[in-house]
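sanity check this chain:
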Amino acid sequence: MEIPENISEYWFLEHYRVIKIEEDDKTILSVDVYRRKWPFEKVDESKCVDDNYCLLYKFLDTKQSGNLNGIEVDKIVVTGIKAGDIYETINVRWIIRGKIKFSDIEKIFYESWRIIGCSGPVDDPWITNCPEEKQV
């Protein structure tokens, strides 16, 4: 299958992917993250198969996008999953006005981790520096 020209993939530490979709006047980024819990007090929306299996969505105020100078953020959506008693955070999606370059994607990748309460991986993809991880 051929990937359309307006879609790109960027990999960080060979395990975390950012998908970039460019449209006329905006860019959509889908950032892979992983945290063993849902870091928010509430869920703004959920889509459930039954009471035990759900996708969770949190819509953030764009002011929470941190220090992304020159990048106009229209929307931030954090996605998680619920499977029984297990809650995990798996994705942050960004809708941005205009085009962005790789250095912006890298900033947004690490900003996504900050939004879910983690520092994000630096040298080891399995050490994501989240509060629930054991510190050695």
